[in-house]
Design goal:
The structure is a homotetramer of 125-residue chains. Chain A has 125 residues and is mainly alpha-helical. Helix content of chain A is 54%, strand content 6%. Chain A contains 5 helices and 2 strands. A two-stranded antiparallel sheet of chain A has the order 1-2. In chain A, α2 packs across α3. At the A-B interface, α1, α4 and α5 of A face α1, α4 and α5 of B. The structure holds a DNA duplex (15 and 15 nucleotides).
Chain lengths: 125, 125, 125, 125
DNA sequence: GTGGTCTAGACCACT
DNA sequence: GTGGTCTAGACCACT
């Protein structure tokens, strides 16, 4: 499910965070699901434990998972925190749209791009 | 027209670039218009000359202005370059939309936010 | 009287301990009262017997109940032990207040919050 | 200004975070002040760079500092985020007060402890 | 010089 | 077995 690009400028821990979010959007991970343990992730992705730990910590801060020492990490979406993040994200969305508009993006293109994100059950393999 | 935030993490030269783009979207600046000279800008914004110079250089690289030594800088949109920037921007747009979708943004909200960017003729002064 | 949150990061046995203390503050349980037997608790709360046993053990260590094999468990507040716990708790209180002060809590708010804890006889059922 | 306890159960990065907050309460650090660089901190405290980096990241997440690669880290209190943290903290405050009340703390003691936190300009040396 | 990332490896407490 | 912390050391991009 996770596939890292070690040549990317995006930090590895961030890629893990991003792909976990995508897995939730696409329904691969749901509320209450157990995440792979940090060590399992280390073996799967062939990265350092610190890197996975950082990704998991980040996910916890974002209100996406809950990590319990001795037990494991679970998907636990903090709806309140996510709602707050959504509000804060508006500003970034506006900035991105200002740039998009400057570059000539039309509403129709925006709609198509948005609709093509995630939910791509048909191209699962 | 320009209003800088010196406490922001966004570099000053970048703020000048961004606000120039916005001025174009909103119609304050049009193809062929003369930009304020670097020195005028320095006096207006109370920033270092090198900062303004860097912003103008950036705007030239982006295909937005053309600076002619001894004459000044003019809005000269390089349509080809901007088309190329538009394509590169697609990736950022997708990333932003992935995050937006994760946070629960619906298409209707996206459309409304996009439509509300720029073109705010009514609040011009 | 007891109501557990199985999704919480707080261990179940700890929730039982906490709610027993609250029952004492609020006067639902008094010195000498008989606690439900471990088995009754298991049936009431639908948790594992070992979890209830651990909670009861904890309560005994804290000087709150006394368990007599073959007879049951009784509220038996060990004043000396509780006084000792009170002293140890000072450190936690200071830490909490440092954070509260950083976040901008004023004395008046602290007083109001403290006064509103427990003794909520009006919302008993 | 910073003094670490390496025998404490509180992680070192957390101690750095806590002491930075205290420095702000006590007025040693103010909005806009430059923090020691990560490497200066490493030399001052004799800990690993990762540990200091983690503390600084944590402070950034908390809306207390802003770190700019190549420039440094500055105190930049995010009033909105801190207000949000204050609201969330209410729950913890209530839990602490329930325990305090159980242990026999009286309002007068609570007030005295709260008033003695920070602002101890008189015992500076 | 600045902060940021990552690895290898060790040790800890708790379940 | 679980997550959490820390060190030593290296390398990166950006100012």
């Amino acid at each position: 499910m996770y596939s890292l690009d070690f040549t990317s400028k995006i930090p590895i821990y961030q890629q893990i965070v991003d792909q976990t979010k995508m897995a939730i959007i696409d329904g691969y991970l749901k509320q209450g699901d157990k995440m792979p343990s940090v060590r399992e992730m280390v073996n799967m992705l062939l990265v350092n434990q610190s890197t996975v730990s950082r990704a998991y910590r980040e996910l916890e801060v974002l209100g996406i998972i809950s990590s319990v020492p001795g037990k494991g990490s679970y998907i636990l979406l903090d709806e309140e925190k996510i709602k707050w993040e959504k509000e804060k994200f508006l500003e970034k969305l506006e900035e991105t749209f200002r740039e998009a508009k400057f570059l000539g993006y039309e509403l129709a293109e925006i709609i198509e791009i948005f609709n093509n994100i995630g939910g791509q059950d048909d191209i699962k393999d």
